[in-house]
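User: Could you write out the 3D structure of this protein bound to zinc ion? I've included everything you need below.
Assistant: Certainly. Input first, then the structure.
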Amino acid sequence: MSRGRIQKALSGFYYVNTGTQLLQCRARGKFRKEGLTPLVGDWVDVQELPGGQGYVERIEPRKNQFARPAVANIDQLVIIASHAIPQTDPYLIDRVSAIAVLKGCEVLVCINKTDLDPADDLYEIYSSAGLPVLRVSAESGEGLNQLTEAISEKLSAFTGNSGVGKSSILNALDPEFHLQVGEVSQALGRGRHTTRHVELYHLRCGADVVDSPGFSSFDTDELNLELKRELPNTFPEFAPYLDHCRFTGCSHTKEKGCAVLKAVREGKVPKSRHESYLRLYEELKPLKEWE
Ligand code: GDP
Ligand code: ZN
């Protein structure tokens, strides 16, 4: 038996990287009976067969899992944003970061295209919210060393609005990434933007990444009751104030004596972050416990 990580799932096969080889595996039937589907990012035990084949025998407990993209054990969500065209709506950053925090992922906000626009406002929002934030440019190379450092030894999912520069950044981090992507597309006989499979790429710097198509890929199924219950806790900068509201069960939306609202008024919590909180609160409100 050997241990490895599922790097790619395609047509019923799981490609397991054992560190020395990539085994083409099937999953044992028992998983289906348990309602468990192996996911890219899973750590698994495999029974090797001759010819580079094998069976997935055991799936290790997951730290987290996402439905879209279908990946397990993401350490960090890298949210690529930009103030140059196409501009990123801060609400979309906050929404996806709330989901990531809920799932126990680190969040890194990465502002790209700083050669065109330094995005001071965005930078200010996220640094005063206390979220890790980097300014980078795939074009000039600014900040790429810091980004490399931030993603090394982790599995990171990259997301961001289309055209923000996700592919350009990954290619700038590792020129071979482009090649890897090219090879996969060719094997499938279609272009990379139409490929719908998920794959984990190992970059030269020691980072593992999954490139997910866009913000929308983290959408709807994640707006669930758990997020509704935990919403205030998914904005880490609210933490110092949550226990100081006048009323227990304060929703931090409009109550008298709300310590979060006070912190917003005093400029200690960025207004735009609290606006996103209000929007998410409204979006989640219709969800009912019995559903
Ligand atoms: P994706 O849809 O997020 O993968 O975005 P792409 O990587 O395809 O980039 C979209 C466009 O933005 C391309 O024309 C890139 O050349 C351009 N672009 C990406 N990063 C930068 C950057 O840092 N500076 C500038 N000026 N252009 C960039
Ligand atoms: Zn409150």
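The first strand starts at residue 2 and ends at 10.
User: Perfect, thank you.
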